[in-house]
Design brief:
single chain; alpha+beta; 23% strand; elongated
Protein backbone atom coordinates (compact mmCIF):
# COMPACT_ATOMS: atom_id res chain seq x y z
CA UNK A 1 0.00 0.00 0.00
CA UNK A 2 2.85 2.34 0.87
CA UNK A 3 4.54 1.59 -2.47
CA UNK A 4 1.34 2.52 -4.37
CA UNK A 5 1.14 5.84 -2.54
CA UNK A 6 4.72 6.70 -3.51
CA UNK A 7 4.12 5.86 -7.17
CA UNK A 8 0.90 7.87 -7.20
CA UNK A 9 2.66 10.87 -5.69
CA UNK A 10 5.41 10.82 -8.26
CA UNK A 11 2.94 10.45 -11.10
CA UNK A 12 0.89 13.35 -9.84
CA UNK A 13 3.96 15.54 -9.60
CA UNK A 14 4.84 14.73 -13.19
CA UNK A 15 1.36 15.66 -14.41
CA UNK A 16 1.31 18.92 -12.47
CA UNK A 17 4.75 19.89 -13.75
CA UNK A 18 3.77 19.15 -17.33
CA UNK A 19 6.94 17.08 -17.82
CA UNK A 20 7.96 13.44 -17.87
CA UNK A 21 9.08 11.68 -14.71
CA UNK A 22 10.58 8.30 -14.11
CA UNK A 23 9.00 6.51 -11.24
CA UNK A 24 11.40 4.81 -8.91
CA UNK A 25 9.92 2.44 -6.42
CA UNK A 26 11.84 1.64 -3.28
CA UNK A 27 11.24 -1.84 -2.15
CA UNK A 28 11.84 -3.87 0.94
CA UNK A 29 13.90 -7.03 1.47
CA UNK A 30 11.93 -8.91 -1.18
CA UNK A 31 13.21 -6.68 -4.01
CA UNK A 32 13.15 -8.79 -7.21
CA UNK A 33 16.34 -7.06 -8.44
CA UNK A 34 18.25 -8.14 -5.35
CA UNK A 35 16.90 -11.67 -5.64
CA UNK A 36 17.93 -11.98 -9.27
CA UNK A 37 21.50 -10.81 -8.50
CA UNK A 38 21.78 -13.40 -5.73
CA UNK A 39 20.54 -16.08 -8.11
CA UNK A 40 23.23 -15.11 -10.61
CA UNK A 41 25.93 -15.41 -7.94
CA UNK A 42 24.58 -18.80 -6.90
CA UNK A 43 24.59 -20.01 -10.48
CA UNK A 44 28.18 -18.77 -10.93
CA UNK A 45 29.25 -20.59 -7.77
CA UNK A 46 27.52 -23.76 -8.96
CA UNK A 47 29.22 -23.50 -12.36
CA UNK A 48 32.64 -23.00 -10.75
CA UNK A 49 32.01 -25.93 -8.43
CA UNK A 50 31.01 -28.15 -11.35
CA UNK A 51 34.14 -27.08 -13.27
CA UNK A 52 36.34 -27.86 -10.26
CA UNK A 53 34.68 -31.26 -9.91
CA UNK A 54 35.30 -32.00 -13.60
CA UNK A 55 38.94 -30.92 -13.22
CA UNK A 56 39.35 -33.20 -10.19
CA UNK A 57 37.76 -36.09 -12.09
CA UNK A 58 40.06 -35.48 -15.05
CA UNK A 59 43.10 -35.43 -12.74
CA UNK A 60 41.97 -38.69 -11.12
CA UNK A 61 41.51 -40.23 -14.57
CA UNK A 62 45.02 -39.16 -15.58
CA UNK A 63 46.50 -40.55 -12.36
CA UNK A 64 44.63 -43.82 -12.87
CA UNK A 65 45.84 -44.00 -16.45
CA UNK A 66 49.45 -43.45 -15.38
CA UNK A 67 49.14 -46.14 -12.68
CA UNK A 68 47.69 -48.51 -15.26
CA UNK A 69 50.54 -47.73 -17.65
CA UNK A 70 53.12 -48.34 -14.93
CA UNK A 71 51.52 -51.65 -13.99
CA UNK A 72 51.44 -52.66 -17.64
CA UNK A 73 55.11 -51.66 -18.06
CA UNK A 74 56.04 -53.71 -14.98
CA UNK A 75 54.21 -56.74 -16.39
CA UNK A 76 55.88 -56.23 -19.76
CA UNK A 77 59.29 -55.97 -18.09
CA UNK A 78 58.58 -59.13 -16.12
CA UNK A 79 57.59 -61.03 -19.26
CA UNK A 80 60.70 -59.72 -21.04
CA UNK A 81 62.90 -60.91 -18.16
CA UNK A 82 61.22 -64.32 -18.24
CA UNK A 83 61.76 -64.54 -21.99
CA UNK A 84 65.45 -63.61 -21.72
CA UNK A 85 65.99 -66.03 -18.84
CA UNK A 86 64.28 -68.92 -20.62
CA UNK A 87 66.36 -68.36 -23.76
CA UNK A 88 69.68 -68.17 -21.91
CA UNK A 89 71.71 -71.38 -21.94
CA UNK A 90 74.65 -69.79 -20.14
CA UNK A 91 74.11 -69.27 -16.41
CA UNK A 92 75.23 -66.24 -14.45
CA UNK A 93 78.08 -68.21 -12.90
CA UNK A 94 79.25 -69.36 -16.34
CA UNK A 95 79.04 -65.82 -17.69
CA UNK A 96 81.21 -64.59 -14.82
CA UNK A 97 83.78 -67.30 -15.50
CA UNK A 98 83.91 -66.40 -19.19
CA UNK A 99 84.30 -62.70 -18.40
CA UNK A 100 87.17 -63.34 -15.99
CA UNK A 101 89.07 -65.16 -18.72
CA UNK A 102 88.74 -62.06 -20.87
CA UNK A 103 89.51 -59.57 -18.08
CA UNK A 104 91.12 -61.16 -14.99
CA UNK A 105 90.15 -59.67 -11.67
CA UNK A 106 87.12 -59.73 -9.36
CA UNK A 107 83.63 -59.83 -10.77
CA UNK A 108 81.42 -57.28 -9.05
CA UNK A 109 78.19 -57.77 -11.01
CA UNK A 110 76.58 -59.76 -13.82
CA UNK A 111 73.24 -58.93 -15.41
CA UNK A 112 71.23 -60.54 -18.18
CA UNK A 113 70.09 -57.54 -20.16
CA UNK A 114 69.38 -56.33 -23.68
CA UNK A 115 71.57 -54.35 -26.02
CA UNK A 116 71.13 -52.93 -29.49
CA UNK A 117 71.85 -54.95 -32.61
CA UNK A 118 75.35 -55.78 -33.80
CA UNK A 119 77.53 -53.93 -36.30
CA UNK A 120 76.29 -56.04 -39.23
CA UNK A 121 73.15 -53.93 -39.65
CA UNK A 122 70.92 -56.03 -37.40
CA UNK A 123 68.96 -53.46 -35.38
CA UNK A 124 67.07 -56.00 -33.27
CA UNK A 125 67.71 -56.06 -29.54
CA UNK A 126 69.28 -59.21 -28.17
CA UNK A 127 69.87 -60.67 -24.75
CA UNK A 128 73.40 -60.46 -23.39
CA UNK A 129 75.21 -60.99 -20.13
CA UNK A 130 77.03 -57.84 -18.98
CA UNK A 131 79.71 -58.60 -16.40
CA UNK A 132 81.61 -55.88 -14.51
CA UNK A 133 85.13 -56.79 -13.41
CA UNK A 134 87.51 -54.90 -11.12
CA UNK A 135 91.10 -55.66 -12.14
CA UNK A 136 93.99 -55.81 -9.74
CA UNK A 137 95.33 -52.45 -10.93
CA UNK A 138 92.03 -50.74 -10.18
CA UNK A 139 90.82 -50.75 -13.77
CA UNK A 140 87.14 -51.53 -14.36
CA UNK A 141 86.03 -53.64 -17.31
CA UNK A 142 82.59 -54.37 -18.74
CA UNK A 143 82.51 -57.66 -20.62
CA UNK A 144 79.56 -58.84 -22.76
CA UNK A 145 78.88 -62.56 -22.97
CA UNK A 146 76.57 -64.31 -25.41
CA UNK A 147 73.94 -66.09 -23.23
CA UNK A 148 73.51 -68.79 -25.86
CA UNK A 149 77.12 -69.76 -26.46
CA UNK A 150 79.21 -68.18 -23.69
CA UNK A 151 81.28 -66.38 -26.31
CA UNK A 152 82.79 -63.01 -25.43
CA UNK A 153 81.06 -60.42 -27.61
CA UNK A 154 83.21 -57.48 -26.56
CA UNK A 155 84.53 -55.47 -23.66
CA UNK A 156 85.41 -51.94 -22.67
CA UNK A 157 87.21 -50.11 -19.89
CA UNK A 158 85.07 -48.09 -17.48
CA UNK A 159 85.74 -45.36 -14.96
CA UNK A 160 84.23 -45.96 -11.53
CA UNK A 161 84.58 -43.93 -8.35
CA UNK A 162 83.70 -46.60 -5.79
CA UNK A 163 86.79 -48.80 -6.14
CA UNK A 164 87.90 -48.33 -2.52
CA UNK A 165 84.41 -49.11 -1.19
CA UNK A 166 84.17 -52.29 -3.27
CA UNK A 167 87.59 -53.52 -2.17
CA UNK A 168 86.76 -52.80 1.47
CA UNK A 169 83.48 -54.72 1.20
CA UNK A 170 85.13 -57.75 -0.39
CA UNK A 171 88.11 -57.87 1.97
CA UNK A 172 88.19 -61.14 3.89
CA UNK A 173 85.15 -62.59 2.10
CA UNK A 174 84.95 -66.11 0.72
CA UNK A 175 81.88 -65.99 -1.57
CA UNK A 176 82.37 -64.44 -4.99
CA UNK A 177 79.77 -63.42 -7.57
CA UNK A 178 79.70 -66.83 -9.28
CA UNK A 179 79.23 -68.67 -5.98
CA UNK A 180 76.49 -66.23 -4.94
CA UNK A 181 74.67 -66.92 -8.22
CA UNK A 182 74.96 -70.68 -7.63
CA UNK A 183 73.66 -70.29 -4.08
CA UNK A 184 70.50 -68.52 -5.28
CA UNK A 185 69.97 -70.72 -8.33
CA UNK A 186 67.66 -73.02 -6.36
CA UNK A 187 65.15 -70.17 -6.06
CA UNK A 188 64.81 -69.67 -9.82
CA UNK A 189 66.80 -68.64 -12.86
CA UNK A 190 69.36 -66.01 -11.86
CA UNK A 191 69.11 -62.91 -14.02
CA UNK A 192 71.49 -60.68 -12.08
CA UNK A 193 73.99 -60.70 -9.24
CA UNK A 194 75.53 -57.53 -7.85
CA UNK A 195 77.63 -56.49 -4.88
CA UNK A 196 75.83 -54.23 -2.41
CA UNK A 197 78.68 -52.64 -0.52
CA UNK A 198 76.43 -50.31 1.49
CA UNK A 199 74.35 -53.08 3.03
CA UNK A 200 70.63 -53.38 3.63
CA UNK A 201 69.24 -49.83 3.85
CA UNK A 202 72.73 -48.53 4.51
CA UNK A 203 73.40 -50.71 7.55
CA UNK A 204 76.97 -51.29 6.37
CA UNK A 205 76.62 -55.08 6.13
CA UNK A 206 77.67 -55.82 2.55
CA UNK A 207 76.12 -58.72 0.64
CA UNK A 208 75.45 -60.01 -2.83
CA UNK A 209 72.09 -58.98 -4.28
CA UNK A 210 70.69 -61.66 -6.56
CA UNK A 211 67.57 -61.47 -8.71
CA UNK A 212 65.78 -64.60 -9.90
CA UNK A 213 62.75 -65.31 -12.02
CA UNK A 214 60.60 -68.42 -12.07
CA UNK A 215 57.20 -69.49 -13.44
CA UNK A 216 54.36 -68.57 -11.12
CA UNK A 217 56.55 -66.43 -8.83
CA UNK A 218 57.98 -63.92 -11.26
CA UNK A 219 60.90 -61.83 -10.11
CA UNK A 220 62.30 -62.29 -6.61
CA UNK A 221 65.26 -60.65 -4.88
CA UNK A 222 67.70 -62.30 -2.51
CA UNK A 223 70.72 -61.45 -0.40
CA UNK A 224 73.66 -63.80 -0.20
CA UNK A 225 76.06 -63.51 2.71
CA UNK A 226 79.63 -62.76 1.61
CA UNK A 227 81.16 -65.24 4.06
CA UNK A 228 78.63 -68.02 4.65
CA UNK A 229 76.74 -68.03 1.35
CA UNK A 230 73.45 -67.99 3.26
CA UNK A 231 70.50 -66.89 1.12
CA UNK A 232 67.73 -64.73 2.58
CA UNK A 233 64.87 -62.73 1.08
CA UNK A 234 65.83 -59.17 0.24
CA UNK A 235 63.58 -57.08 2.51
CA UNK A 236 64.38 -53.89 0.62
CA UNK A 237 62.40 -55.21 -2.37
CA UNK A 238 59.67 -57.39 -0.88
CA UNK A 239 58.42 -58.67 2.48
CA UNK A 240 57.81 -62.34 1.83
CA UNK A 241 58.04 -63.65 5.40
CA UNK A 242 57.88 -67.23 4.22
CA UNK A 243 61.13 -66.80 2.32
CA UNK A 244 62.93 -64.94 5.09
CA UNK A 245 64.18 -68.12 6.70
CA UNK A 246 65.45 -69.72 3.47
CA UNK A 247 69.13 -70.38 3.86
CA UNK A 248 71.95 -72.44 2.57
CA UNK A 249 74.31 -72.23 -0.37
CA UNK A 250 73.20 -74.53 -3.17
CA UNK A 251 76.36 -76.08 -4.51
CA UNK A 252 75.06 -76.70 -8.01
Amino acid sequence: MKRNIVIAAVTAAALIGGGTATALATTGDDDPGTTRQSDVRDRDDDARGAADDRADDDADDRDGSRDHDRDRDDRDDGRADDARASSAKVTAAEAVAAALKEAPGTSVSAELDEEDGDDDGDDRERAVWEVDVLAGDGTWHSVWIDPGTGKVLGSETDDEDDTDEVRAALKGTSVDAAEAAKAAAGRGTVTSVELDEDGYRGDGVAAWEVETTSPGKGEQDWRVDLKSGKVTADRSHHSDSDDADDSGSDDD
